[in-house]
Amino acid sequence: MAAKKVIAICQSGGEFVTNKDGSLSYTGGEAYAVDIDQQTLLGDFKSEIADMFNCSAETMSIKYFLPGNKKTLITISKDKDLQRMVNFLGDTATVDVFVMSEEAAARNVSNMPASRSSRTTVSEAVVPIVEPIDVRVDTCNAIDQIDMELHETPLVSVLGSSSDDKHHKAAQQWENTITGVDQRFNSFGEFREALHKFSIAHGFAYRYKKNDSHRVTVKCKSQGCPWRIYASRLSTTQLICIKKMNTDHTCEGAAVKAGYRATRGWVGSIIKEKLKVSPNYKPKDIADDIKREYGIQLNYSQAWRAKEIAREQLQGSYKEAYNQLPYFCERIKETNPGSVATFTTKEDSSFHRFFVSFHASIVGFREGCRPLIFLDSTPLNSKYQGVLLAAIAADGDDGIFPLAFAVVDAETDDNWHWFLLELKSAVSVSQQITFVADVQNGLKKSLTEVFDKCYHCYCLRHLAEKLNKDLKGQFSHEARRFMINDFYAAAYAPKLEAFQRSADNIKGISPEAYNWVIQSGPEHWANAFSGGARYNHMTSNFGQQFYSWVSEAHELPITQMIDVLRGKTMEAFYSRRVESNQWVTRLTPSKEEKLQKETTIARSLQVLLSQGSTFEVRGESVDIVDIDHWDCSCKGWQLTGLPCCHAIAVFECIGRNPYDYCSRYFTVESYRSTYAESIHPVPNVDRPLPGESSLASVTVTPPPTRRPPGRPKMKQAESLDIIKRQLQCSKCKGLGHNKKTCKDS
Asked: What ranges does the record give for the region Disordered, renumbered to this chain (predicted)?
């Protein structure tokens, strides 16, 4: 004899409320359908539920009502309890199962040992509301499958009142979405959507009796109610037609048009058009609008999930986008010849990493940019998370120049090493490159291994954050602020004497902090020691504009996000090329302005002539200028690539042109060479045409790093400009407590 099968409607995230007759109703939350039988083990049942609700099976409490008894909850704590539940049901095909954490169960239910005999009455389980109301609950419509499985996952069911006309107005337009026999639809999806709206407008719940690619049979969920509808494909066409329909309702639901039910898919379809117009439509605003227009209360998580569904309907499948990466790489290289676009997967075919550097970027960097690259990363809060790694250069006007970027599953030493290998392959320049990057994430080792001729300048921002973190708890906010300011002063100091003065200031506050500064490798971050040509750029977050583009597109499917970044870069290249054609100066605007400022200062300086190329210049200080080696003792010429005021004073004295001594990277000619090439559009990003890709057999699945539901948690780094005041005891002068809690009192 075959084991009896039952569909368990597992519900979680809601709460129990008391009705007038003392029975319990479960409202809110979400539900999933699970097939069980008399042979199902509790451990397997819990594991399946845990996967659905993204919760822990170990801390899960499962309860259910006996048939016909809505006042007593029974706990399932072992295999026999689960088997008894199936036996208790008799001929009933479904059972409502309520899932909660043990902590939540302890809060709502007192004195409930984990056994079959553990029963909870209404008085134990629920704190009665002041004015009990009769809540119509429809959490049994769970998922769209075949043979008696239920409609979509309900987010919430709410009470409607016959006086709540304003909540009904929005649904009145749906009363005739189903008109009767011979009504036709373009697809089963369109039919199901119309049916769902029809049920909301008429206030009844339904279930699928048959639901496949050829026919759909739906009946009213209320037992004994004759309402039903049958639709199937119209012969020789792709249209769906209603063949039979019994419009009579004998259940209470047909008379009371108040029982609204909302699914994530339904809410998503409602907000889809508004989301298209307002991409920043917030979950809170979604919940407020649905409450106002339909009388349905959504919590933040439910509204957020609905927004995710609507976004996917508008933008396409996040999962399918990963599978399109092989085709996407092909299209980039076809439309932008000379570009580098590659991806890798793991052994299980899941996405690992993607790299792209467009031909226009490669040529522009080689022809007109300084050999200076900023390496940084930013997290992606898309459905499958990940991290974007970027290599940003600087053009002759100190604008960002996106050279290459990658999307990886996580920020690891291995992924950074791979990114640098791909970058070297794309750029392939012979001159020494200066990198401004964090000292962490394995970059220090990888840079020296991958680039033979390079100089690694540490990012000052990352170093200052680490210093501030190490000092926290040891010093007051004033002391930390002084030390951080002195650290920055030491980094920017052009001469050894100025560096040492700032370092000594730190030593005066804390010898330990001074040792930290000296041992952190000043030759990699201090101007007084640095050998790399960083042009006075001290931090790796130079490309903030590029990262703002990422923040605007990071929630898109991966191929669309990459294409948005391509489009932004394409527009920037074009606008800068057009703009530079209007320039009439020899240097770019920002560099021309700086040179003019130095020229103004030079007029007040005194030059002492001598033989050869070395000159003495007097002003507030005495500096030595060597025009043959482009050197000045103030270090300003070497650090910026532009003649300092002392050098300009010499040029004016001996009749030479200061423009001849400016770095070639700052000329308008070099700037135009930087943006001479164009980035071209990549058509058909979303959906390749049939037979268009030779890599159709290559499968790429999403990475396992899927984002948990809800608002992404953003960790705010402590500002270095405004260090928060730390609590200090006025009695013992200790940190972290006040006089009242001082242990010395």
From this structure: 686-717
